[in-house]
Amino acid sequence: MACPKFFAKVPKIDAIFGETNEFLLFTHFQANQIPYPMSKLPKYAHWGMFCLLLLQACSSHQDQSQLLKLLSPGKTGVEFKNILRESDLFNVLEYGYFYNGGGLAAGDLNQDGLPELYFSGNMVANRLYLNKGGLKFEDVTQAAGLEAAGLWNTGVTMADVNGDGWLDIYICRSAAADPDKRRNLLFINNGADSFNQQQVPTFSEQAAAYGIDDPAYSTQAAFFDYDRDGDLDLYLLNHSVQEYAGFSKTLGQFKHRLNPFYGDKLYRNDGNHFTDVTRQAGIISNVLGFGLGVAISDVNQDHWPDIYVSNDYNEQDYLYINQRDGTFRESLAQHINHVSLFSMGSDVADINNDALPDIYTLDMLPEDAYRQKMTSGPDHFEKNQVLKNQGFYHQSMRNMLQLNNGDGTFSEIGQLAGISNTDWSWAALFCDLDNDGLKDLFVSNGYKRDYTNMDFMAFAVDEQLKSQKSGKEVAVQRLLEHMPAIEVPNYVFRNQGQLQFKKMNDSWGMNEVLLSNGAVYADLDRDGDLELITNNINAPASIYQNLSRERHAPHFLQLQLSAAGKNTHAIGAKVYLHTTEGVQFQELMPTRGFQSSVEPILHFGLGNDSLPKALTIIWPDGSQQQVQGLAVDQRHLISQQATDPAPLPKHQPPLFTRLQEGSPTFVHRENLYVDFKREPLLPQMISPQGPKMAKADVNGDGREDVWIGGAKGQSGQLFLQRSSGFAAVPQPAFDADQESEDLGAAFFDADQDGDPDLYVVSGGNEGNAQDPSLQDRLYLNDGRGNFRKAPKALPSMATSGSCVRPADIDRDGDTDLFVGGRLVPGQYPLPPTSYLLINDGSGHFTDQTAQLAPELQQAGMVCDAAWLDVNADGFEELLVVGEWMPVTLFNNHQGQLREPLA
User: Fold this and answer.
1) Is residue 474 part of a domain?
2) Peptide bond into 619 cis (omega under 30)
3) 3-state secondary structure of 740
C-alpha cells in the first residue's frame, strides 16, 4: 500500500511549518505520548499534524511488510569491522585482491543450541562472538584464543576436523609475500572440559600437526568426505598472482605450468593427518587458477560428492566429477555450455524443487545501463576468440544460473530468472527467507576501488603520459584517490516459482549501501527463520534479523544430522522432504557463497503445510534412511541408523542416439568476419546466422534426403539417403555459388514437374546492400537428384535474407513464396526488404509485394515466418516474427496481404 499523494492540496509547506518551534514541541509531545492542547497549535499546524500522523501510519505499514531488519552493533554486541588501510607499498595496485574482504562462519561451538559467529579480518584480528540468545552476542575472542592476528586472513570454515563431535575452525590466509606468514591455521576445539564459567570454548592451533598449514595464496577451504571413508577430507581453493591475470596470445602455454603456492589442492584425511593427493586425484593446479568460489555437491546424483570451482580472470571454471576411486575428472565441457568470465562466489541448490542441484556463479555485470557503459570489463570479441583458440572455454561477464536438466546437462537461465546482473558480487546464498518452501537468493557486493571504471582508466593513461614526459613516477596515492568506489546495496531476491526471481530490496528492507564480502545465513535466535550476516569493509558487520515468523508465522522444519564415523555433522548428506506441495531437496554442505561457511543445519520453509509426509536421508556413506512423523516448527536431531545403500536414481533413456556410421559428414566452416569492427554498437554478432538445412525426397526413392547450407566461401552440400546412411552427392551448381552465404532454404515443386526443386536464401552482414552475392537462387531438379541453377527464374533481390516459406497464396494451383529480409549489411537495425514472389506456373517468379502486400516490404528484421489458415476461409495467413518487431499476422484477403494484425 502506497501513501496517498495528497500534498499538492495542502497549503504552502512553508506556512505549515512556519512556526517551527511550536510544531517541533508538538511532535516532541506526540513522540512521548504526552497530551498537547490543540488550541495552542499555530495556523495550518493542524495540516502539519495530519501529515505527520499519516506519514507515521504509512511508515508503520511499511515496517510491517519488511522481512529483514538491520540490527545495530549496539543492540547485538557484534562490532567487528574489517578495516583496510592503503599505503604506497600495499594497495590494490600491488595486490589485486586487496579489497576482496573477509569471510565468516556460523556454528554452535559450545553445543548450547545457539550458533556463534566468527569473522575474519584482512588487516585486523579475527573476532569470535558467543551467542547469548535473543540476538545478543559477546566478544570472547581472547578467551577462546582465536585472534589469528597478522596478514591476511580470508576464508573461514567450521567443521569437525578430528571427528570428536566439536566444531573446529580452519582459516585461510593470503597476500603476505613471506610464505610462512601465509600458512593456514587450524584451531581445534578443546571441548567441554576447556569451558570457562561463561561457556566459552578454547582452541588450540594445530594446522602443522595435521599437515594442512599450507602456505599457498588461499581463498577458502571445503571439508567433505570425497572418498566416503567416514572422515572429512579438504579441498583448498587457492589463487594465482597478477603476473598470470592479464591477457596474452600465448596465455594457453601456462595451463601446464605448476606452482605450489598458486593452484588448488586436495588433501586426503588419513586419520589425524592429511596427505596432499592433488596430482594423483586429477585436480588442476596450474598458475592460471584464480579460485574465488568452491561448491561441493553431488552434481550427477550418483551419491558421491563432486566439486565446482569458480575461477576469476581467463581460466574457466572447473567441474570435477567424482570417479568413485579416489580420483576426479574435470568435465565442465561435457555438462555446461558456457560459464561466467570473472567467476566469483557461488552456490549450488535446488532452486525449482525438482530434487536436482542447480549451479549459480557470480560475476561483475552492473544492473543499470550507466554502470555498464562505465565498466571496461565486458567481453571483447577478438580477445574471446584468441582465448578459445588456446583451449579456454566459452565465458561471458555475467552471473550464470545453470539449471540441472536431469540428464547430466545444464541449461543456463540467469537472464531468464532475472538474476544475471548484480554488479561486483561476492557471496551467493540460496535459502528460504520467507519460509514459503522456495529458496530465495541473497547476493553481497561492492568494491572499494573500481579500476575497471572507464573514467579512471582514461585518467591513469593521462597520468602515465605525463610521467613519461616529466621523468617522474606516477604517484600511487593519486591514482588510488581517483579510483571510484562501487557502493550499491546488496541484493535480495524472492523466489516466485516458475524459474523467476524478484528483487525485494525495498519490500524486504535491505537498502544499506555497503562494501560486503563474506556472508552466511543462520537461525541466530532459534525462532524458525534465517538471519543474514555479512562481513563488511570499513564498516561494522551487518546482522539482518528475519521477521518472517513474527509477521506471518509460516511453518518450518530444521534438521541437525549426526552421522556414523568421524564425519559427525553428516557433511555431504542429502535430504528429500516430501510435502503436500512436492519435494524439497537440500545437501548439507556448510561451505557456501564466498570465503564463508553456514551453520551445519538444514532449514526447510513449509508455508502453510503443517504436516510434511516423509523424509528421506542419503547419508555421506551412500546409505539411505526414511523418517516419518516429524512435527513442524521444531529442530530435530536425527542420528544415522541406515546401513542399506541408497538406490541410484532412474534416468530416462535418451530419446535419440547418435549414429556412429552413416551420418552426414558435413563440417560447417564459418569465415572469419568481425561485425563489431564496422558496427561497434551491435548487441551481438549477426553475420554467423547459419548453417541451415532442408529435407525432401529429391530422387524419388522413398527416402528423405538432406541439404545443408554453407557459409561464405563454402558451398552447400546434398546428402542422399541410402540403406547404409547418408552419402554426399557432388553438385557443380552449388559449388559455383559458394561465395553466397546460405541462410535459408526450402524444397518445393517450382515448375510443377513432380519433383522438389530447391530455393536458397542468400544473406550475411559483409559487403554492402547491393552485393551480387546477396541474390537468392533457385535450383531445378531433374527428378534424379541433380540440380541446375535457373538464373532468370527470380527477380533482382539484393537483400540479406533469413527464410523462404512456400504457399499457394492466390490458390491458382502453383506455389508462391514469401522471402524474409533479415538485415541491411552494415546498417543495423534498419529494416531490409522482404518479398512476396508470385509463380506464373512454370517456375518463373515476379516480385508483387508492392501490389499484393505493401506492408511486407519493410516489415522489419524478419527471422522466421509461417503460413496458416487462421480464419478457415481457404486462404493462408502469414505469421512473421523478427528482431525489434512484434509478432505480426498478415490477413490474406483472397491473395492480397494488406492489413497486418499485430
Assistant:
1) no
2) no
3) coil
859/882 Cα distance (integer angstroms):
9
Residue closest to 607 by CA, chosen among 432, 354, 442, 351: 432
Report residue 219 as a C-alpha cell: 581463498
Distance CA 261, CA 220 (A): 14
Beta strands, E only, 749-832: 757-763, 777-781, 787-789, 800-807, 816-823
Count structural domains, the chain. Answer: 4
Distance separating alpha carbons of residues 167 and 880, to the nearest angstrom: 63
CA distances to 300, 367, 378, 493 from 371, rounded to whole Å, are 38, 7, 11, 21
Q: Do 43 and 176 fall within a single domain?
A: no
Distance CA 448, CA 638 (A): 45
- Kindly tell me the burial class for residue 284, based on how many C-beta atoms sit within 10 Å of its own C-beta (0-12, 13-18, 19 or more): buried
Residue 133 falls in which region: left (phi positive, over 0), alpha (psi -120 to 50) or beta: left
The residue out of 639, 655, 685 marking a domain boundary is 639
pLDDT of residue 452: 83
**DSSP three-state, residue 419:** coil
Q: Are residues 318 and 175 in the same domain?
A: yes
Q: Which residues form the domain of 595?
A: 555-639
**589: domain CATH number?**
2.60.40
Nearest in space to 271 (alpha carbons), one of 679, 566, 622:
566
Q: Name 192's Cβ contacts closer than 8 Å, sequence gap at least 6.
A: 110, 111
DSSP string, 779-795: EEE-SSS-EEE-TTSS-
Alpha-carbon distance values, 497 to 13, 350, 352, 367, 439 (Å): 46, 12, 7, 22, 9
Q: What is the pLDDT of residue 552?
A: 86
- Whether 706 and 726 have beta carbons less than 8 Å apart is answered as yes
Which residues have C-beta within 8 Å of that of residue 655, sequence separation ≥ 6?
none
| DSSP code of residue 278 | H
My answer on whether 231 and 308 are in the same domain is: yes
Residue with cell 552485393: 771
Asked whether the beta carbons of 421 and 365 are under 8 A apart, the reply is yes
Cα separation, 105 vs 596, whole angstroms: 5
Half-sphere exposure of 605 (CA within 13 A, CB side): 22
The region, left, alpha or beta by phi > 0 then psi within -120 to 50, assigned to residue 506 is: alpha
Report the C-alpha gap between 657 and 653 in whole angstroms.
10
Residue 58 within a domain: yes
In a domain, 390, yes or no: yes
Same domain for 174 and 289?
yes
Sheet strands (E) in 478-530: 488-489, 491-497, 500-503, 513-514, 516-522
Are 621 and 228 in contact, with CB atoms under 8 Å apart?
yes
What is the DSSP track for 312-345? -TTSPPEEEEE-SSS-EEE-HHHH-S-EESS---
Read off the DSSP letter of residue 8.
Answer: G
pLDDT tens, position by position, 220-246: 999 999 999 999 999 999 999 999 998
- Reported in sequence order, the residue ranges of 152-232 that DSSP labels E, i.e. its strands, are 153-159, 168-173, 185-189, 203-205, 218-224
**What residue type is assigned to position 453 of the chain?**
N
Cell 536414481: give the residue: 649
End-of-domain residue from the set 614, 639, 664: 639
- Same domain as 546, residue 559: no
CATH number, domain with residue 430? 2.130.10.10
Residues of the chain with pLDDT under 50: 1-62
Residue 472 lies in a domain: no
Question: What is the pairing mode between strands 635-639 and 555-562?
Answer: parallel
Q: Distance (Å, rounded) from C-alpha 477 to C-alpha 469? A: 20
The single-letter code of the amino acid at 273 is H
Per DSSP, the chain holds a count of helices (H) and strands (E) of 18, 57
Dist CA 711 CA 691 (whole Å): 7
